[in-house]
Request: fold
Amino acid sequence: MVLPRLCGSLVIGGFAGTSLPQGFAERLASGELGGAILFARNITADVEQVAALCASVARTHPDPPPIVSVDQEGGRVARIKEGVLRLPPARTLGERLELDLLERVGMAMGAQLAALGFSLDYAPVLDVHTNPTNPVIGDRAFGSQPEKAALAGLAFARGLSASGIASCAKHFPGHGDTQTDSHIELPRVRHDRARLDAVEITPFRLAAPHVPAIMSAHVVYDALDDVPATLSHRIATDLLRDELGFRGVLISDDLEMRAVAATYDAGEAAVLAIEAGCDALLVCSDEDAQRAACAALVKRARSSASFRARCEEAHARVVALRRAFVPRALLGDALTAALRPPADVVRALEGLA
Reply:
């Protein structure tokens, strides 16, 4: 495989506007992007627009189609506001629903996302809510007890998977006890390894055999390494792969977030993340940064056989995910019918209001 396609397949990018930009579409078609992430800026109140946009992404490269992804957790992180279930925060779901019903909620949400043409949802959050002053996680976590949070999150993930949507557990190895928001600055977790094992890592240890994707955290864990987890071989490979046994796709959090971008440009961060053990890289807004990330990966792969091998390993995992979860948008009456949620799920959610 030519290097621009090999390396580009590892980048999942975002774009501006409610239709697919020509240049972005061309990079998807050439294989120099591996997928797209949609945000509220890409979505109108018309579900047909969302489905058409997702379908236009999928059509660019039909074998296998690109990843078509979205952050649709529920609560305050829900990019699609109209035409789909309005879920309460994960903490409410985890505290008030039995696991079988929570799985049904995930299945219903997954069915709607699949009908709209998505293939991956960046959910569930498996962080443990242990810090009431945490500015970014809080009620996005399913609970404050590690095992309970894990079981609730995994029930939601099973539901997504049953509907043909890949789940992505986040933020490894745990963002629940931070004082700062990694969108703005680099957080640190100063707990010792015993505490990390008992709390932060526990949900991911339980999830590792069962989820197709995990997202890394832009957080420094003093007991594990002195660089953010996204860029840490000790965390992304030694801990996640070798110790926890994860075999799916490790996706970086957005490389444009200040926790990483304040120190590393997109190209540097991309190379370091792949070297650490990430398989796919989110670059969520800046198309120039997406190109820079791909170019830096290509340059490094040309000069290092071991780095090229690492890219090939990552590419194989990403392609396997793309083949396992294929986006298939519906239109017209079929879309309307597929977006109609099951009555028991509607009743359950009404009972949480």
Q: What stands out?
A: DSSP finds 15 helices and twelve strands in the chain.
